[in-house]
Amino acid sequence: MTTRVALMATCLTDTFYPDTARAVVRLLERLGCVVDFPKGQTCCGQMHYNTGYRREAATLARRTAKAFAGHDAVVAPSGSCAGMVRDLYPGLSRLTVGVADRTYELSEFLVDVLGVTDVGAYFPHRVTYHPTCHSLRVLGVGDKPLRLLRAVRGLELVELSAPESCCGFGGTFAVKNADTSTAMLADKMRDVLDTGARVLTAGDNSCLMHIGGGLSRLSTGVRALHLAEILASTEEEPWAATP
Amino acid sequence: MADPREVVLRRIRAALADSPPVPPVVRDYEVARDVGDVLDLFAERVADYRAVVRRVRVEALPVEIEASLRARGARRLVAPVDLPGWWRGGEVVWSLDGPAHPLSVRALDRADGVLTGCAVAIAETGTIVLDAGPAQGRRALTLLPDYHLCVVRADQIVGTVPEAIARLDPVRPLTFVSGPSATSDIELDRVEGVHGPRNLEVLIAH
Amino acid sequence: MGRNPVTWLGSPAFPSAARTALADVQLRGNLAHATGTIRGKRAAAVAELPDWERLRLAGEAIKDDVLANLDTYLTRLESQVRARGGVVHWARDAAEANAIVLRLVREAQASEVVKVKSMATAEIGLNEALAEGGVSAIETDLAELIVQLGDDRPSHILVPAIHRNRAEIRDIFRATMPHAAQVSDRPADLAEAARAHLRSKFLTAKVAISGANFAVADTGSVVVVESEGNGRMCLTLPDTLITVMGLEKVVPTWRDLEVFLQLLPRSSTAERMNPYTSVWTGVTPGDGPRAFHLVLLDNGRTATLADRVGRQALRCIRCSACLNVCPVYERTGGQAYGSVYPGPIGAILTPQLGAGTDDGPTGKLLRSLPYASSLCGACFEVCPVRIDIPEVLVHLRNRTVQEKPAYDPEAVAMAAASWVMASPRRFRLAQRLLGPLRLLARGGRIRRLPWPASRWTDSRDVPAPPKETFSAWWRRTRG
């Protein structure tokens, strides 16, 4: 039986991280899924919602629900966007209820729906994983991303000393409380650097843009890379930076 | 001027005017649970607070109490007037406190220690509860002396907090005591010994 | 009505107070050490109870029942306290509560009172009000004493002096305690110095003032949970006891304490049980104070109760677990929150209790507090009464947004963004307009952007927009 999947790329990944979305497509197709990318999608409305713009968020939620109507499973490479849809949409608008319970974050979809932890990936690098707050506490993905990473051939996984500590992104928090956000970022970067990993991975490009942006500013040489790109990498077609 | 009581009650009723009913309280937590040997657990948990704890035979209480007081070097002891007379012994000056002849605060403060029984004890948390009942006296008695020797009978020990709550009468003045007085106010680390008795010794009599 | 002292006069908005605090290296070290210690201990204390989650649910349900029937339980409490020899007073706000207490102290002919640590009396600024009335209030809790002697402000609900390490405390004691000029920085010695300093005060005080952790409606029993024994001293030795209690501290039955006496100690000091818990009912002849007054305090609580989402903040049992796990609190400390209620619970409680003070710096502070969070959710996870703090934060942010004028720059930007995002066509166009940013990039990254984006690029690079967005790629290859 083929599983039909609608990809919710998320506005940030679509705009700034197309490699991540392409990796999700490649990975899911390799695992036998048929992937669709509904054209009506834009943004889930999370930034508006979390900043207090509830009415604007409701508009975007209804639009998102409409874009994904009729799809059996919606997969997002983002714990916070999937969390927004699943946890908060029902309280925002009755018109969104259908999409909420069919939406999955990528690692959940792989482990819970497809039932795989070994996705046939190959990634010969030292990697550390940051569990993003919303994947952890809103969705409850638990150790699913770690189980997926442990099955990747060639990958050396080193754990952070305080993995569950927030990186300080927090959406508009990063600019509204930039000093506090930066202090949290500094501690997270120190933790990442102490592992000696060359790659930092997570299930959210938003947090990765924040931590990776800091690591890049300090020219640490540590790369922030979405989990999907590691899982999509194989011996035949290994991960390579887009020029 | 409006009566503050009426104003506050009116505000509450207005605030709740459109509220949906709340679901009933579900108490599916554990009231009792298998904690193994309650005496063992109680002794272990009291000791965790850095209190001294010993298990003794009921009939040997006078000897054991005397041994405790000697080890402590306590000579002037206070006790509630209804403390069993046969507990008191040794080369100790006893001052008894009771409703007819209450000891002064200064006298309590000068005493080397206080000997009492208790009402209930909780194994899981290593707690003794005083309710001003038999052999316990009023609250100040166990507060001012720096050393509190407390006799706990085996049948007074329950496993859990809910079991203890069920045995207690809240209208009596109650004091739950878990170890010697302590503070976590310096760097959030527990240090024993502030205003209450800095030394707690428990004799489990069985 | 005067201003509500729940916020400190002249406190700046959170971001700017945080900036100052973040620059204090000593403070950050002290906080990281203390919160790190307590987090690990709390997790272990909670893991011991197999029914922890069921206890949390029961705690939540009991408190929700209290709030839904608050008038019934308060009047029941009142009649029980009266029946057992106590006197009950009602106070609409801080000024009224302070006036009641001052009058009672004067009636007892005392010029000095001893105090047990109490958030309610800190919230109403009672010590300052008493001082104005010629009565000096002596804080007897060790951390409160450190704050009082250091002429400082509290920074934590449970441990108001958490921002001070042992060496700083030693210096404060040496400078202010007559007999502590040589005290060392060992915590045991510091505790001993406090004991010696306060002993005679306890033995001679005529009036004590306390707060209450719980009060049982059915029996009129009041509960104070503490560690040092200073609470027991205040509750038993003086002739007159005045207890100031927030309306929401009432619980319906004695049995309810079997839940809270498990939830509170493990959440706050991470102990199986705190050293001392005192329970008293009215006046007991021959044992303890001869006069007992209970002051029931509103001060913004009924206004908070009126908000269906926000009212869950009134479930709070003041354990501080949310502060100890909060990544923002850990960096900024408590004083940046400008109130006796810092941390995540402060960020939702202070704006609600202080609502109505919309003008000037206080209004600015109150509006900034709900944004003092990355919404990481760690606070909700540990809250013993399951207050969904992130939910209330977002709700209060929405309340702030609704009060903004239409021309507010942020509101305009947000409206524009949602207008763009509401149409796939406009969104694709906006994506194309970002393309030229590539010209600013070196090695795939942008290092500087103008304000307001500079608040991002001050500390983080931005990836250069790719040559082709994902949706463009999909259109081109899969169409």
List its traits:
heterotrimer; A: 243 residues; alpha/beta; Rossmann fold; 2 domains; 4-stranded parallel sheet; 13 helices; 8 strands; C: 479 residues; 6-stranded parallel sheet; 23 helices; 12 strands; 4Fe-4S (chain C); iron (chain C); transport (chain C); metal-binding (chain C)
What does this structure look like?
Chain A is an alpha/beta fold. Chain A has 2 domains: 3-113, 3-Layer(aba) Sandwich (Rossmann fold), CATH 3.40.50; 126-232, Rossmann fold (3-Layer(aba) Sandwich), CATH 3.40.50. In chain A, 49% of the residues lie in helices and 12% in strands. Chain A has a 4-stranded parallel sheet with strand order 2-1-3-4, with helices on both faces. Chain A is globular. Chain B has 206 residues and is α/β, with parallel strands linked by helices. Chain B has one domain: Rossmann fold. A 6-stranded parallel sheet of chain B has the order 1-12-7-4-2-3, sandwiched between helices. Chain B has a 4-stranded mixed sheet with strand order 8-5-6-9. Chain C is globular, with a radius of gyration of 25 Å. The longest helix of chain C has 23 residues, at 25-47. Among the domains of chain C are: 58-301, NagB/RpiA/CoA transferase-like (Rossmann fold); 409-477, no CATH class. The mean pLDDT of chain C is 96. Chain C has helices at residues 14-22, 25-47, 52-68, 70-83, 94-107, 119-123, 126-132, 142-149, 166-176, 187-204, 230-236, 257-268, 301-305, 321-325, 327-332, 343-353, 360-368, 378-382, 389-402, 409-421, 424-434, 454-457, 470-477, and strands at residues 86-91, 112-115, 136-139, 207-210, 214-216, 221-226, 240-246, 250-251, 276-281, 291-297, 445-446, 462-463. Chain C contains 23 helices and 12 strands. Classes of the chains: A alpha/beta (243), B alpha/beta (206), C alpha/beta (479). Chains in contact: A-C, B-C. Chains B and C meet through helix 1, helix 4, helix 5, strand 9 and strand 10 of B and helix 2, helix 3, helix 4, strand 1 and helix 8 of C. Chain B: It holds the Pfam family LUD_dom.
Write the layout of secondary structure elements.
The complex is a heterotrimer of chains A (243), B (206) and C (479).
Chain A: E1 3-7, H1 11-16, H2 18-30, E2 33-36, H3 46-51, H4 54-67, E3 73-76, H5 79-92, H6 97-100, E4 103-105, H7 106-113, E5 126-129, H8 133-139, H9 144-150, E6 156-157, H10 173-176, H11 178-195, E7 199-202, H12 205-217, E8 223-226, H13 227-232
Parallel strand pairs in A: 1-2, 1-3, 3-4, 5-6, 5-7, 7-8
Chain B: H1 4-15, H2 38-48, E1 52-56, H3 61-72, E2 76-80, E3 93-97, H4 105-110, E4 113-116, E5 120-122, E6 127-130, E7 147-153, E8 157-158, H5 161-167, E9 174-177, E10 182-183, E11 191-192, E12 199-205
Parallel strand pairs in B: 1-12, 2-3, 2-4, 4-7, 5-8, 7-12
Antiparallel strand pairs in B: 5-6, 6-9, 10-11
Chain C: H1 14-22, H2 25-47, H3 52-68, H4 70-83, E1 86-91, H5 94-107, E2 112-115, H6 119-123, H7 126-132, E3 136-139, H8 142-149, H9 166-176, H10 187-204, E4 207-210, E5 214-216, E6 221-226, H11 230-236, E7 240-246, E8 250-251, H12 257-268, E9 276-281, E10 291-297, H13 301-305, H14 321-325, H15 327-332, H16 343-353, H17 360-368, H18 378-382, H19 389-402, H20 409-421, H21 424-434, E11 445-446, H22 454-457, E12 462-463, H23 470-477
Parallel strand pairs in C: 1-10, 2-3, 2-4, 4-7, 5-8, 7-10
Antiparallel strand pairs in C: 5-6, 6-9, 11-12
Helix pairs in contact in C: 3-12, 16-19
